[in-house]
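Marked as duplicate of an earlier ticket. Keeping the data here for the record.
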Amino acid sequence: MSGGSSMFKNLDRRIQQDIKRIVDNRLRITEELSGGRIKPTPIDVRVVSHPHQRYAVWFGGSLLASTVAK
């Protein structure tokens, strides 16, 4: 993600919590639907926020502008 809305305070933590909740729920449902025969392995969810996130859009635009059009 990039852009202004990606700079909201604690967005990385909130996204990680939401995704982890969804993943855990799907694993639980899978186990329930299998009647307990399938025991899904827990999945580690990590969202990383880059320290230079605020410059990502500018950097991408700069790279695009520096390419040679053919």
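See parent ticket for discussion. Helices lie at 11-33, 56-66.
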